[in-house]
Write a structure and sequence with these properties.
Strand content: 5-15%
Number of strands: 10
Number of helices: 9
Structural class: alpha/beta
Largest sheet: 10 strands, mixed
Radius of gyration: 17 Å
Low-confidence stretches: none
CATH architecture: 3-Layer(aba) Sandwich
Mean pLDDT: 97
Shape: globular
Number of domains: 1
CATH superfamily: Ribokinase
């Protein structure tokens, strides 16, 4: 197991061209947040916008429109045909990366749409980060694992990981981010340990922030392993900064997103 260092993070970061524009730094699609769970989409979106990526489109149910427009004005809104949940997969030709799962719910129509979306991502070879309810959907439908895009990152916590194991998932096919105390990244026969982070990060929404950061690095063209390493590390460093300001008892997931700083 290799412990990640600040020097390693610095070496992995690509130079940021002075003449770059939003197209230079990548356009991603985020599918998250059924009605009543818009916060998951908001947190992931805010983290994405601080990751260095150029543009984000969020696919949301129509009833989440107003809160998204107010809280994340930088994001472009794409409405699902359903007012309350994700039911409609979308084309990916214009996107550099896909994030799917936070706060989606596991309703049958959503499950079908998640599968359809992953098939589209596989067709376009779109780098994809899968989290939360999208992982739960896949654990309930193990036959769908074969349809994952080749460039896939999954970000389970211990409960989600146990369900994935029980479903018989082959983890060698993906880049695995195992969230928790001492988050680890496993891929290509290597395991990397994040030495940063604190117990204050064990709070609702923290994983949504991580998904947004990883998605941002995928959109910028990083491969899945480097996107996972950079995303996990800067998420943890932001958590440590938030803890220094508010204390581990009082910090929130929003504090992690607000304190994200990419070197």
């Amino acid at each position: 197991m290799k412990e990640i260092t600040l020097d390693a993070l610095h070496d992995k970061l690509k130079p940021r061209p002075v003449d770059g524009h939003k197209g230079t730094f990548g356009h991603a699609l985020l599918i998250a947040g059924k009605y009543g769970m818009a916060g998951a989409c908001i947190l992931a979106s805010r983290a994405f916008m601080r990751s260095g990526a150029g543009k984000l489109t969020v696919h949301i149910p129509r009833r989440n429109n107003d809160i998204m427009q107010v809280t994340v004005p930088e994001a472009v809104i794409q409405h699902d045909s359903s007012p309350v949940m994700f039911t409609q997969a979308t084309d990916l030709i214009q996107y550099k990366a896909l994030g799917i799962g936070p706060g989606l719910g596991t309703e049958p129509a959503t499950a079908t749409a998640v599968h359809d979306q992953l098939l589209i991502a596989r067709h376009y070879d779109t780098p994809t980060v899968i989290d939360a309810d999208a992982l739960n959907i896949l654990s309930m439908n193990p036959g769908w694992w074969k349809d994952l895009p080749d460039k896939t990152i999954i970000t389970p916590h211990s409960g989600e990981f146990a369900r994935l194991q029980k479903s018989g998932m082959d983890f060698s096919r993906v880049t695995l981010v195992m969230k928790g105390h001492g988050t680890t990244i496993a891929a290509q026969g290597q395991t990397y340990l994040c030495p940063w982070g604190n117990s204050g990060m064990a709070t609702a929404g923290s994983g949504d922030v991580l998904t947004g950061i990883i998605l941002g690095f995928l959109a910028q063209g990083y491969d899945t392993v480097d996107a996972a390493i950079l995303g996990v590390s800067f998420h943890a460093l932001a958590g440590d900064k938030a803890a220094s300001l508010y204390g581990q008892y009082s910090m929130t997931a929003s504090d992690i997103a607000d304190n994200l700083k990419i070197m």
